[in-house]
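pinned: reference chain
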Amino acid sequence: MDYVIEMLNIRKEFPGIVANDNINLQVKKGEIHALLGENGAGKSTLMNVLFGLYQPERGEIRVRGEKVNITDPNVANALGIGMVHQHFMLVDTFTVTENIVLGSEPKKAGTVNLKHAEDQVRELSERYGLNVDPKAKIRDISVGMQQRVEILKTLYRGAEILIFDEPTAVLTPQEIKELIDIMQSLVKEGKSIILITHKLKEIMEVCDRCTVIRKGQGIGTVDVSETNPTELASLMVGRDVSFSTEKTKAEPKETYLSIKDLRVKDVRGVEMVKGLNLEVRAGEIVGIAGVDGNGQSELIEAITGLRRSESGTIRLHDKEITNLTPRKVTQSGVSHIPQDRHKFGLVLDFPIGENMVLQSYHQKPYSKKGVMNFKNIYQKAKNLIAEYDVRTPDAYTPARALSGGNQQKAIIGREVDRSPDLIIAAQPTRGLDVGAIEFIHKKLIEERDKGRAVLLLSFELDEIMNLSDRIAVMFDGQIIADVQPEETNEQKLGLLMAGNSTQKAGEQ
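pinned: its structure tokens
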């Protein structure tokens, strides 16, 4: 059998942890090969070894049958291996072309020949159906377009083997569909793709074979045509996983959150929330369904004190919390699982233990008269780490060293543990594997059953349908429909989200 990539018995250690324990991966030419595993299973580590960012303690790598020593990414590039990272490596103020040629600039008489580079980028873009404008500035293009720039960067350097690290984590459903088309056209041109993911639907749709890693060990490789999502999920987490969330019917009580005639502008001064009204009661989960960019983020930021409201009122119980500071909002009984965990959820260079008390470090028992009690802080952190299965070498590890899913579990542990009246969960399972999603859904339902009010923002329609007791559809800055999950389906919700409010959700 001819393999373009063979990774044999790869072992990679970090202080206190074996990230890859004698893993094997064999990729055939012209296939899309999935690398599947839970958050923190060691998938990205293995690919960083292949791309030369890490050196393994043991094992060998063969490219097209030849044994190679990949000491850094330049060696990987020379071997035709390119990597599209989960967090893009782009310079905001540069154009698309400037980013693509950075480090391997075409020169003419000693100066950079940008015109020639632009022509090459345009030609590559058209050939693979990427539709990227070579002259656009990175800061002016969407996240999905930025990802295409990363893909072009690898193609420009002659990559024949492309590694995609969680490529759909930050994309809208439409962009995901377009990316799948792009991957299929790359394979038709003879490229080979390794896709790091934990989205089973995508594997079933686009991949030929799938290698599963669990807790740093290789579990095996399966043909996708001979498996199903249930089997893949149990291979990945080592137990049966439920895709639907068990819950009893909600018994909502008094109104906890009441929003009236709210108007909010975005950073550009454009009004995004336009006279919105919404109520969330104790003991219910209200899901906000809407296409991204219809004012959802501005609404959440206004409730949590991160953005000023122009007019209207936000009340928690009978207390008005409009335009209070974020700390005063949290002290009023609001917990916030933010949409952007790096920007608003964590201090990445702080130990994960200290991140666990970001909302309460200034209160007893964590501090007294301004002096922090680190013994109590770390004891609390260790308890939460155990309860929420946050996989970290210890509580002193910097937050940035954890995988995205474990960062998310840490935030959710911190926010839920404070016993708030209202939990605002914005994209709570973004970028998480099925095991972690199941765990977080259970936690949110437990909180609902304890009488908390939960406001859920998610762009995953199955999550909205699965978790919500009531669905508020948001379009163009307003709630245009309020529907029961059992009386609608994804197609009808999609029509409402597109602003088609004449389509009543209960109609056939």
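why pinned: The longest helix spans residues 173-188. The radius of gyration is 24 Å.
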